[in-house]
């Protein structure tokens, strides 16, 4: 959340005013969104850092307070500073700075993925929450020596074209073998030819092996939503276990750190010294599951 002097935040803030007097004087500004056409004057705020609290550096939220010298601070900083301005020591926390509050309300900040095609705009500070579930978020090619990143569909075709040797294909609703060597650490399954990419990973620790299943995709509604069931069986089939998630986790980048949640744990004594995990997996598309239920 620290915003500091990040120069990327400095771009593209738009300030608009809907004050009637200003509208009368204004020239018409075309609005390319489908909202009701309103005559508003707009300009560009060149430094979005101005909208961060100068004390805590987080995005300002209303109410905004000022001291007699005009220094501003957010309401939580006024409390933690015990109403003493950090710049001049005069009292702060009673008088609000209405102009700063109005400017804050009038600012439209584009999604940080605007350069990748997202057209969403937000009030200042809200764009970060959206970024986490933006369908234009970049995904990274999981192959160790490849630096490709792109929108998930582009990544899927990139993967199909460039790394066909290391992938297995899966079909939703069908069991498929996911037998893997523990030393391989990762196994990729791709739906059809250029469909979503699923990573099955194993992480060997002292007591056993953790196995995870993740789809490489942004956490956006409607994008690569799957459920899965993973089945493990010891080599001669005398011990079995299964693990599944109604909602497969989506990640933009694979991580090689031992997971803390959402894993299947196969203890070493299940494996009887074998170097591989005999598994199969069934992946389902989430919408299709719901259709079956209704
Ligand atoms: Zn603050
Ligand atoms: Zn002051
Ligand atoms: Zn976005
Ligand atoms: Zn690649």
Automatic annotation (TrEMBL):
SIAH-type domain ranges (all copies): 106-164
Coiled coil: none
InterPro entries for this protein: Sina-like_RING, SINL_plant, Znf_RING/FYVE/PHD, Znf_SIAH
Annotated pathway: Protein modification; protein ubiquitination
EC number: 2.3.2.27
Keywords associated with the record: Metal-binding, Transferase, Ubl conjugation pathway, Zinc, Zinc-finger
Amino acid composition bias (Polar residues), ranges on this chain: 1-26
MF term (GO), any: zinc ion binding
Reaction(s) catalysed (UniProt annotation): S-ubiquitinyl-[E2 ubiquitin-conjugating enzyme]-L-cysteine + [acceptor protein]-L-lysine = [E2 ubiquitin-conjugating enzyme]-L-cysteine + N(6)-ubiquitinyl-[acceptor protein]-L-lysine
Region (Disordered): 1-34
Functional note: E3 ubiquitin-protein ligase that mediates ubiquitination and subsequent proteasomal degradation of target proteins. E3 ubiquitin ligases accept ubiquitin from an E2 ubiquitin-conjugating enzyme in the form of a thioester and then directly transfers the ubiquitin to targeted substrates. It probably triggers the ubiquitin-mediated degradation of different substrates.
Annotated protein name in UniProt: RING-type E3 ubiquitin transferase
Native organism: Eruca vesicaria subsp. sativa
């Amino acid at each position: 959340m620290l915003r500091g002097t990040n120069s990327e935040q400095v771009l593209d803030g738009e300030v608009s005013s809907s004050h009637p007097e200003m509208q009368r004087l204004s020239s018409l500004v075309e609005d390319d969104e489908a909202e009701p056409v309103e005559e508003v004057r707009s300009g560009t705020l060149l430094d979005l850092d101005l909208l961060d609290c100068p004390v805590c550096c987080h995005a300002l939220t209303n109410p905004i307070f000022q001291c007699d010298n005009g220094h501003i601070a957010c309401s939580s900083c006024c409390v933690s500073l015990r109403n003493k301005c950090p710049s001049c020591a005069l009292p702060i926390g009673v008088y609000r700075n209405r102009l700063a509050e109005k400017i804050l309300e009038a600012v439209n900040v584009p999604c940080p993925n605007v350069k990748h095609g997202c057209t969403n705009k937000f009030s200042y500070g809200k764009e970060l929450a959206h970024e986490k579930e933006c369908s234009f978020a970049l995904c990274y090619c999981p192959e160790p020596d490849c630096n490709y990143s792109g929108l998930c569909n582009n990544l899927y075709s990139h993967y199909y074209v460039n790394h066909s040797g290391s992938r297995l294909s899966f079909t939703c609703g069908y069991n498929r073998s996911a037998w893997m060597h523990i030393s391989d650490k990762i196994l990729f399954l791709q739906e059809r030819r250029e469909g979503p990419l699923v990573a099955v990973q194993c992480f060997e620790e002292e007591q056993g092996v953790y196995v995870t299943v993740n789809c490489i995709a942004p956490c956006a509604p409607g994008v690569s939503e799957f459920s899965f069931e993973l089945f493990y069986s010891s080599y001669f089939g005398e011990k079995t276990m299964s693990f599944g998630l109604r909602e497969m986790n989506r990640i933009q980048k694979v991580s090689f750190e031992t997971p803390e949640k959402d894993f299947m744990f196969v203890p070493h004594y299940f494996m009887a010294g074998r170097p591989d995990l005999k598994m199969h997996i069934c992946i389902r598309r989430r919408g299709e599951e719901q259709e079956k239920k209704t």
